[in-house]
Amino acid sequence: MGTMSEQLSSPVPRAVPRARVSRRIGGIAESATLAVDAKAKALKASGRPVIGFGAGEPDFPTPEYIVAAAAAACAIPANHRYTPAAGLPELRSAVAAKTQRDTGLVVPPDQVLITNGGKQAVFQAFATLVDPGDEVLLPTPYWTTYPEAIVLAGGVPVEVFAGEDQNYLVTVEQLEAARTPRTKALLFCSPSNPTGSVYPAETVEAIGRWAVENGVWVITDEIYEHLVYDGARAVSMPVAVPELAGTCVVLNGVAKTYAMTGWRVGWLIGPKDVVKAATNLQSHLTSNVANVSQRAALTAVSGDLAAVEEMRNAFDRRRNTMVKMLNEIPGVECPTPQGAFYAYPSVKNLLGKTLRGQTPTTSAELATLILDEAEVAVVPGEAFGPSGYLRLSYALGDEDLVTGVSRLASLLAEAR
Fold this sequence. Notes:
Layout: H1 4-9, H2 23-26, H3 32-45, E1 51-52, H4 64-74, H5 89-103, E2 112-115, H6 117-129, E3 135-140, H7 145-152, E4 156-161, H8 172-178, E5 183-189, H9 201-214, E6 217-221, H10 237-240, E7 248-253, E8 266-269, H11 272-285, H12 291-302, H13 306-327, E9 342-343, H14 363-374, E10 376-377, E11 379-380, E12 390-393, H15 398-412
Parallel strand pairs: 1-10, 3-4, 3-5, 5-6, 6-7
Antiparallel strand pairs: 2-8, 7-8, 9-12, 11-12
């Protein structure tokens, strides 16, 4: 060893440059649906007559009686303070009662966690259940947030694709083929975002029994439960297969049913140990959900479903109009969705064709061309899985819907 003076004079090793943003967060892609909606709004604000089919939210105002309840709650000092991280006790009780009323699932209030919107419920479900390296089966097309939430939890999303020939519905056989010793959970969403497909009761039961037999957890997103058409029914998997209840997490919220996307109230229902762990996470992450929003949600879930029925009738009318118009466009194939408020047409037959001097080979390129040339904003299939598809929301006014799809049809008719 050298002398002390020699040691002090030795060059200090240079620090290894470190990334400014962590790999975990830097790898997250922006929400494609929100990005398309933001771009459409920005173009519209600049004076261009853009019609946006990107946003996944009802175009109706929140019912007045819910808004009035929130206004009244603002004047109550208790709502100006912290409340329990798991949610207002009366709201947890009301969600439990609403769940039994609407789906038949019986749960006590202590198995309900109120979250900041359904999206936080998604993140907390995966964070609570998934360890690094665990695989999560992801029926594809999927909502754009699911794979990001899985990866953030350290998990590995395993896509199980079902195309338009299957009405975008995966089978038990496909799930079994994708299962490995590392499979921890299945993400299940019916009615589906982005496709609007609804799983028949017998398929829901078959998938639930497969999950029980193979020790696979199910995270089931029921946010669109009331938006179904043509006699379709949203079946809750733990109701169809009661044995699944101990390894199932149900996600839901007020956003779609009551036109309350901006109020940010969702919930997670599951076994007591899972709910307790997720509550511990939330206590450090966001504390409690805004109390005024919780009071509004309490009024919403405690009331009847008259408001959602009015919206559902409007969505049904728009759905039929949109699907008919889309299927009249050469090269477009659009199965009829039975739920939610999305159409998910295949445009694979248009890719590689020349249009306005361009030859798009992906649905992302086609969506950009459609926005530039027809001033219509749609979300490309790459946001939800494979290329070759577009998602269009019909949660917009009837006149804008017809105008927007007409512009789309006029443009795509030029493809050669």
